[in-house]
Amino acid sequence: MNEEIITRNEISHRIDVLLSKLNEKLTEHNKKHFQRLEPVKVNRDDGKKYTRLVQIRESGAGSAYGFINLTTGDILKAASWKAPAKGVRGNVNDYDYGLSCCDPYGVKYIRGGNVEWD
């Protein structure tokens, strides 16, 4: 079997690309819908097993946007500040770096109730 092995450094690079694309979309979305609110940005907080994606406002207030497994690149919804929910929503190795499993408010639910970008 000839499988491609993805290293942790490659996954880390793909996370950076995802964050760049995600922050561009968030800026567009916020300018269109929330001109009077302070801007939101998503940053990363690396742990041993997961990278926590943190949605931060200029005031410094933050919330967990989602998690990415640093070994596999799997994208998971946040169950809490410290833990991901079960069920993979996407992967940073996807063609769009996993952007399709994200919406303006976090990683998408598996079944409905999601907000689409416009």
Structural class: alpha+beta
Instruction: Note the overall shape.
Output: globular
How many helical stretches?
A: 1
> In percent, how helical is the residue content?
10-25%
How does the major sheet shape up?
Answer: 5 strands, antiparallel
Comma- or semicolon-separated keywords:
about 120 residues; alpha+beta; 5-stranded antiparallel β-sheet; two-stranded antiparallel sheet; 1 helix; globular
Compact description:
22% of the residues lie in helices and 34% in strands. It has 118 residues and is α+β, with helices and mostly antiparallel strands. A 5-stranded antiparallel β-sheet has the order 1-2-3-4-5, covered by helices on one side. A two-stranded antiparallel sheet has the order 6-7.
Itemize the secondary structure elements and their pairings.
Elements: H1 8-33, E1 40-46, E2 50-57, E3 62-69, E4 74-78, E5 84-91, E6 102-103, E7 106-107
Provide structural commentary.
The protein has one domain (8-107). The termini are far apart. By secondary structure, it is an alpha+beta fold. Strand 1 (40-46) and strand 2 (50-57) form a beta hairpin. It is built from one helix and seven strands, in the order H-E-E-E-E-E-E-E.
